[in-house]
Structures are given as C-alpha cells and as structure tokens.
Amino acid sequence: xxxxxxxxxxxxxxxxTRLGRFLGNRRLLLGLVLVAGIALVxxxxxxxxxxxxxxxxxxxxxxxxxxxxxxxxxxxxxxxRDMLSRIVYGARISLTVGVVSTVxxxxxxxxxxxxxxxxxxxxxxxxxxxxxxxxxxxxxxTSIIAAALLAPGIKTIILIFSAFGWTSYCRVIHxxxxxxxxxxxxxxxxxxxxxxxxxxxxxxxxxxxxxLVVSATLQVRQMILGEATLSFLGIGIQPPTPSWGVLxxxxxxxxxxxxxxxxxxxxxxxxxxxxxxLLGDGLxxxxxxxx
Amino acid sequence: xxxxxLRRLVVVGIGLLIVSFGIFYGIRRSPIDxxxxxxxxxxxxxxxxxIHAALGLDRPILVQYGRFxxxxxxxxxxxxxxxxxEPVTRLVLQRVPVSLSLVLPAFLLVLCVGxxxxxxxxxxxxxxxxxxxxxxxxxxxxxxxxxxAIVLILVFVVRIPIFPAFGRAGPTSFxxxxxxxxxxxxxxxxxxxxxxxxxxxxxxYIRTARSKGASASRVYVKHxxxxxxxxxxxxxxxxxxxxxxxxxxIEEIFAWPGIGRLTINAIRLxxxxxxxxxxxxxxxxxxxxxxxxxxxxxFLDPRIHYA
Lengths: 291, 307
Prior knowledge:
The complex is a heterodimer of chains A (about 290) and B (about 300). Chain A has about 290 residues and is an all-alpha fold. Chain A is about 75% helix and about 0% strand. Chain A has one domain: Orthogonal Bundle (MetI-like fold), CATH 1.10.3720. The longest helix of chain A is centred in the C-terminal third of the chain and has 38 residues, at about 195-235. The two termini of chain A are about 25 Å apart. Chain B is flat.
C-alpha cells in the first residue's frame, strides 16, 4: 500500500503500460510537441497571417521587434513583406513536401521490400540489385542534378524525392520482412492454407510497421532539408513563393543591412528538423520492445 | 578474390554506360535548350535550327550517343564545352582539385575534432560531458549547411571583418568554407565513434585486458579504438566522396570554381558535353569508391573474404 502511494507521490511513469512509456519518453514528447506545433502553425497560420507576398515598400527592411509585437513581429524583408507570415507559409511548403515525398517513397519502398523479402528468388534478386544501383549515388547530388534537368516546382521536387528516396525503406523493410518470414506463426499460417497475400497483409505488414514508421520519421528530415537546398540553389521552389530555402537565398544580398531575412527561416528549418529527429528517436525507443 | 574484383568491375562498367546514356538522353529531353541560353532573350525557330545543326543536336539521339562513345573510347575525348570551347576533360580536371582542396581540410577538421569528442563521450558515459556532447551534436546536426555558411559570413565577414566573403585566394579564404562543411559533418563522426566505442567496450576482451592489469590508455586505444577503426574508416571514406558532391552548395555560396558548381552551371546553361562528363565523373567516383571500400574490408578485417 505504502509503496503504491510512494510511487504515485514520486510521479514515476510506469514503464510497463503503453501510456506510461509514451508519456515518460521525453524525446518523443518533445518531438511531438515541436512537430505538431509547427504543423498547427502551418495549417492555421495562413488564415491569420497577412499576405506573404504583399509588397509594401514603405515598410521595407524593418528589424524584428522594432515595432513591438503588433505589426510584423519578426520584421519585414527588403520589399516590405512580413517575415512572420512568409515563414509560416514556408512551413506549409516544407511540411507538404517532406510528408508527401516520404509517404510515397515509404509506400513504394515498403511494398518492394516486403515483396522482395517474402518471395525471395529472382524477384528478390532483381529488386535488391535495382535498389543497390540507385543507392550508390548520394541523395543530395542526385536530386540536385535531376531538379536542374526538370522544370522547377513543388511537383517536380516531390517526384524526384519519391523516385530516389524509396531505396532506404526497401533495404530496411527487406531485412525486417526476412526475419518476420521466419516466425512460427507465418509457417503455421502457411500450413493452415493461407494465401501469400493474406500472410503479407495480416502478418508481415504489422511486423514491418514499427521499423517503417521510425525510418519514415527520420527520412522526412532529408526531404525537408533537400527541398530547402534545392530552393536555395534556385532549382526548387521559385521566388516569390516563400519557401524557407528561397527566403535564405534572397536574404544573402542583405546580410549587412537586414540579417534577419536569411537567419530566421534557417532557425525555423532547424527547429522542424530537430523536432523530427526527436520524434523519430523517441519512437524508436517507444516502439521497440524493452527487454 | 581477383574474380570478384573483375565481376564488380564489369558491373561498374555496365552501370557507367547506363548512367552516361541516362544523362545523355535526359539532358536532351529536358526543357533546357542551349540555343535559348546562347542567344539572349531566347531563340526563334530558325536560330534554334541553326544552332542545333551546328552542335550536332539535330541527329537522332542514338547517333549522337554513338559519336560520343566513339570519341570517348578512342581518343578519350568527351567533347568540347559549348561555351568556353575548351575540351571538357580539361575543364573537369581543373575543377576537381579545387573541390578536393575544400573537402579535404574540412574532413581533417571533422576527424580531429569529432574523434576525440566521441572518444571522450564514450569513456565518460552518462556524465555531464557525455550528455552535453550528445545534446550539442543533436542540435547542431539540425542546421542546414548553407545556413551555417551564411551565419558564419554574417558574423565573421559582415560584423567582424576577418575573413573574405568569397573567392579562393589566400589561406584565410579556406576557413569559412571548410567550417561550413565541417560543422554539420562532425556530429556524424562523433556519434559514430561514441556508439562504436560504447559497443566495443561491452566485449569480453576488454574485460580481459583490464583484468590483466592493462593501463586505461592501453585498453582504450589499443584494444577498443582499434576495433572501431574499421567501420569508421569505411564510413568516413564514403562520406568523403559524398561530400565532394554535396559541397556544391558551399561552392555556390563562396564562389569557388569547383566541380559541383561546374555541374550545376553546365546543366543550367545547357552545356551538354560538360554536364555529361561531370555527371559521369561523379558516377565513376561513387562506384569506384564503393568497390574500393568493399575490397578494403578484406584487408582491414581478416575474418572477411570474398569467394
């Protein structure tokens, strides 16, 4: 009796219940707060913020907090556009590109990985060789070259990222599928006469889901950073659309006069990436069974 | 072993052919047209036709590719730049050392700072030092390398004018670019060394060495670190090669005439021969280093050998 009270008094999170582990995992919670926070801002912000493309030359290059918290709390850029609303719109772009590319890449990679791992033989050989061939080339330089060849825009970016991004999921899921295939319940299902499709759906898929979710959360960072890099170089999102990469790039000329144009979007970018890192690592701890 | 290498080389060769045709075809099918970039304000149909004929772009793509291959295999001639009229091979060979001179110092910095940091963090596990190192690395890795470059310029060029903002002349001009490359990378090395060392320290032979009375330095350096070295070397070599490509953004910011910048400008301008050779160069580099790393495994870890 006294022990239970003591525990409650000390507010120790029970590491035995799912909720307890969830709430006790600081990284997971912090990551979730950051990501959800930014997602909320990105979703709701555009309805509350002034037009990010409204050029008001009278207000150009106002420093952050120069006018207090009322007007343009984060300052304006060289054309008088409000920095805060530009950053909020940029969050939308980064999140959209990041999440959509990751989802598509993860789906493609997971399906291919499952099929390769489960069926083996020539299918596995073919799929894994293609994966190896594409994985040879680093994501960044390949996406830069591809983006330079195609017409710039958000659709192109998502296409390129999905086309080159699925390979790491394929590798990981292939490995997991191989080990899940060995499990006794799969063999039992086979013995009872289950079809391959049924086994894949009911047994293999739940087995790969934790690894898939963790991989995806950590990969989103690459996509978000990739979009910022491409936009920065001028081959991704084009100005005046306020992607964070575009903002950082336009601000370069004004470093001596208006340093906040480049600096602030970069901080927002770092916070978003940090959020996903924490989320991904927290999920790894949470989803992997504690021995 | 020799047959393995030969087999891999054949695969590399096929891969290079695929890549070379891929970029050859891709760039000719892309919206980029050298005629539009050569004539300011865009070219009309007649000018386009003339330029295409002069550059040999009106032939069927396979014919063009055949001529390209012929030149490449017989005379090692990969074409002439549409813009500078220099042989493309010379252009690329000029730029590669520039990129290397950026990536090499950056990597030396990363290794000199990252390895000891990871080492210390692993030895003093769960101490304040360990937590602060891990935390700092975590946060630093969230920043974009081009953003770090811009902030460095802001602080050390605009506010306190110590270093030059761009260009590649004199020792001071190497500092900021190398730092911008190094800072995002060093986190990876630190985490790698720390994780590897933590893993190795669990093993029995460490316990044996300690119980035999070996000094701490002997245990850590001779026994533990040696075993981290193998994966570290392979990971670092791959990272090094990748960074030569990723340095493109830093080259762009600091206006260094490196291979990354050459590639992207060539593609933008529609300078087909240059773009092709650049992409091919990267392909060769990545594939060859992959192969070299795989082969080096057999030397570094005597337990591994290929049929």
